[in-house]
Design a protein that fits this description.
The protein is an all-alpha fold. The chain has one domain. Helix content is about 70%, strand content about 0%. The chain contains 5 helices and no strands. It has helices at about 1-25, 25-45, 55-70, 85-100, 100-115. GO terms for molecular function: DNA-binding transcription factor activity. Pfam families: Sigma70_r2. This is RNA polymerase sigma factor.
Length: about 120
């Protein structure tokens, strides 16, 4: 059971990170969101039903975290710096480019926690 969880988690990380980046439009916020999602998934892994795909479960966890995080944040209006034409697309492009860096994050996560080996 645990091997399947770890294997599916490793395969889902790039897609989860891309989805977080599309939600936040900020690479650092996406990193934080994915880290919180993975931490919660590891803590609640006994609630996951073996034999079912993990990625939809992770996506739901991440979406709930995103909603909780931004729900209570006061709306200050559009950011004038982000209003510049290309700023958000540049951030999205950098998020897509940095998705390849998740292999480095994954190896650090594996060595730090001792799982996924």
């Amino acid at each position: 059971m645990m091997r399947s969880f770890n294997t599916q988690l490793e395969k889902a990380l790039p897609d989860i990170w891309r989805h977080a980046c599309s939600l936040t439009h900020d690479k650092d916020a996406a990193d934080d969101l994915v880290q919180d999602c993975i931490e919660r998934a590891l803590r609640k892994r006994l609630l996951w039903m073996p034999g079912r795909p993990l990625k939809p479960w992770l996506t739901k966890i991440m979406l709930n975290l995103y909603r909780d995080r931004w729900r209570y944040r006061p709306y200050a209006g559009p950011d004038p710096q982000c209003a510049a034409a290309g700023h958000i697309s540049a951030v999205s492009a950098s998020c897509s480019f940095d998705c390849d860096l998740w292999s480095g994050h994954w190896s650090w996560l594996s060595s730090a926690t001792g799982w996924g080996r």
